[in-house]
Fold this sequence. Notes:
Blueprint: H1 11-22, H2 31-58, E1 64-67, E2 73-78, E3 125-129, H3 135-140, H4 147-153, E4 155-163, E5 171-177, E6 189-198, E7 207-215, H5 217-220, E8 226-232, E9 240-241, E10 249-250, E11 273-280, E12 287-292, E13 297-302, E14 316-325, E15 351-359, E16 365-367, E17 372-375, E18 382-388, E19 392-398, H6 404-426
Antiparallel strand pairs: 1-2, 2-3, 4-14, 4-17, 5-11, 5-15, 6-7, 6-14, 7-8, 8-9, 10-13, 11-12, 12-13, 15-16, 15-19, 18-19
Domain Neprosin PEP catalytic: 150-404
InterPro entries: Glutamic_endopeptidase (IPR053168), Myb_dom_plants (IPR006447), Neprosin (IPR004314), Neprosin_propep (IPR025521)
Organism: Eruca vesicaria subsp. sativa
Amino acid sequence: MRAPRMRWTTPLHACFAHAVELLGGLERATPKLVLELVKYLTLAYVLIMSLCVTVAMSTPTPVLTINSPDGDLIDCMKINDQPALHHPLLRNHKIQETPTGHIVQKEENFGWQVWQRSGTCPRGSIPVRRSETTIIQKKYETVTPNAAADRATRGHQYATAYVQSKPKIYGTKATISVWDPIVEASGDFSLAQVWLASGSYETNELNTIEAGWQVFPSKYGDDQPRLFTYWTRDAYFSGCYSLRCPGFVQTSSRIALEGAISRTSTYRGDQFDITIQIWKDHISGNWWMAMGVVTLEPVGYWPGEIFTTMSDHATMVQWGGEILYGNTSGLITVTQMGSGEYAEKGYKKSAYFCNLKIAEENNSLLPVEDFLLHADHQDLYTIKKSQTKACGNHFYFGGPGHGPMRSAAVRGTVSIVVLFSAVLLVL
């Protein structure tokens, strides 16, 4: 009769059992090997538990937790407890609560984020969406993958408009329609955003500031469009999303980065859009961001100290869509960009960027008179200029991608035609 299998009751026991199996079982493991194994596993366990205790003790306690109707937990953290202040370049940083010379307005069309239906954070605190990562990851995660490795293993597709002829750019403003594109796999994403950039990608000196909406199931746990920001100072070798690492300093108690957007545009129906503005505060040196639907509310800023080539100004501004897909065996993805329709479909069918503006040195916003267009593969995603009195020079973008189902359908149709032709020849 075979002895009953031992039931391992703790992760340490399970780890020990797995290690013993790798050694060929208890009957083959020598006493010396087992003792060494126990010693190192015990040491590892003690170190992990010590790290957990350290992180737990250093993790600030929220002043309030708000339960969002979509299941999100929004922790209202004291403004001085936010991750940004852990950046080594910001140890003595004093938070700038309002932009210089800016009259702070409260967003009038409140409730355009789902969590706002359940309330807002008290003054002196900021909303931080609680992620599903472990406590250790929350403390030490840098989030951003190595850009070179990412591009080598995964596929990016862009449909963007850009301006880079101006020697100095101090900000941008744009209105972006919000949609809920379908992404093929949880690790894929689809976004619409504005970029400010300076420096070279080839020399790893690229600095960027990015903000917009994004559908990214593996990061956010669902397929809702969510607000996000991003930054890097070294061509994506470091930097991160939103508040997931030190960098962006949030000041608003009413807008949550990574919070879900409650409304989206509908095909041939009502259109919903948000406006994002980013500008350089010449007094503090910080790059501020405001967003909203009717009025713009300052959300926070990227401190000038964390940048190199963009510490003073940007040299390029870009607007548009981007998708990331995991299948690199050819351009085969059904991940949608924008509305999932090509740019040529136009208003109420395609996603758009409207009222494009660029800030000059005195921060005056000038309408963009002309811009260049780029689409990596126009059979997947397209971009098209347009002009109206209400929207100025603007553009539509997006597309359905190209997937295995479509390829299979084409192959099936060809096979039927060939078979039918063969039958006719025989007859």
